[in-house]
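ZP: hey, is the magnesium ion complex queued? I don't see it on the tracker
AM: it wasn't, my bad. submitting now with these inputs:
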Amino acid sequence: MAGLSIKDARKHFGTTEVLKGVSIDVADGEFTVIVGPSGCGKSTLLRSVAGLEELTNGRIRIGDRDVTGLAPSERGIAMVFQSYALYPHLTVYENMAFALRIAKADKVAIDAAVRRAAAILNIEPLLDRKPAALSGGQRQRVAIGRAIVRQPQIFLFDEPLSNLDADLRVRMRYEFAELHRQLGTTTLYVTHDQVEAMTLADRIIVMRDGRIEQVGTPRELYARPANIFVAQFLGTPR
Ligand code: ADP
Ligand code: MG
């Protein structure tokens, strides 16, 4: 495992600056949640860490490696989005095994990784099904399973629960907490849901308009918000 360090991340789309110098350190094994209103740059930041966007300026380190400029597959990261596209023609098992097959892992290792992830996520009975035969929550578990089997150094989650209904969202919240307890993987998790952030985070980063407003434990932010924006954002559950 390894920690994650983002130094002075800046990103322009044309003449618009959407990341205005963001620096974040996530300690080894820490679960850090980024919250902030829609459009403040959360996804752009995560996509930049994953290597799906190129920063205009800044450096990204994972453990002792500078990964700035590396291809996504070389970074040791697994990312789960809110719209989790599973391969519809493949079974759950094959969806989870896919990345390992591409990486030419051996059959026995693939089988062990898929079954271990399936056990953690409680989807062992679903391994032979196709995505069309799964509920929304089950599909999201498979998407997370695909991330787990790769045994990444870092998990990136971009609003992974926002397409699920409210009940399921609450249940999956506990599953994320349990997953982290079991695997301990360094995690950067983006949400615009304050309750999700307060429940899951070791540390919360509040973003607004391409900048960080405040960083702290849920307790610190709740007790001592740095300004009215943070207080209002964390204080009004939706
Ligand atoms: P969030 O995830 O916090 O809702 P985003 O990172 O998706 O915010 O977007 C931040 C800003 O960057 C928004 O104003 C969005 O319109 C803009 N943006 C995101 N991606 C692109 C892109 N590919 N081209 C131009 N503008 C973009
Ligand atoms: Mg987003």
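AM: back. The two ends are 35 Å apart (CA to CA).
ZP: great, adding it to the tracker
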